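Encode chain A's predicted structure.
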Amino acid sequence: MTVTSNTLRSFAAGILISTSLIGAVYLFGPSEAKSTGKVESAKVEKLSEDDMVKNLTSKGYVIHTEDQWKKQLQAMNEKKEDKTAEKKEDNTDGKVIYKTMLTVSTGMTSIDVGNALEKANIIKSGLDFYKEVENRGVENDLRPGTFEVESGMTTDEIISTIFK
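Encoded structure for chain A:
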């Protein structure tokens, strides 16, 4: 099929006319969309606060007022402070021990685990950890899950916890 200059001009003129019409409707048309009235069957029901709370609690949500929420946060902070004070009392040698919950997901590598442990101050070097895992030949035996590790653990303990 050959495209002649008249065909090309006709196509360009059609594009120009259609964009002009669309622009005119956009600029000079109504500023707000009006309802056609065909959706009258959908009822808009306004619920009271009590009805909203009942609906949400029946679906398993827990509803708190702002005051209840603040009291709960304050109680949680007090529990954290108590646990921190207990940990400080237990640690008598003065050495800081870091604890973390490491979540290993499917697709993670031992390099990712080493980097995560290094960021959590559990180990000094993620690269050294990876090399140790590789030397033992367990780099493909990573177990998905959540593990509690701390900086007081040896490399052997960490590897036996995270790897199969």
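The first strand starts at residue 99 and ends at 104.
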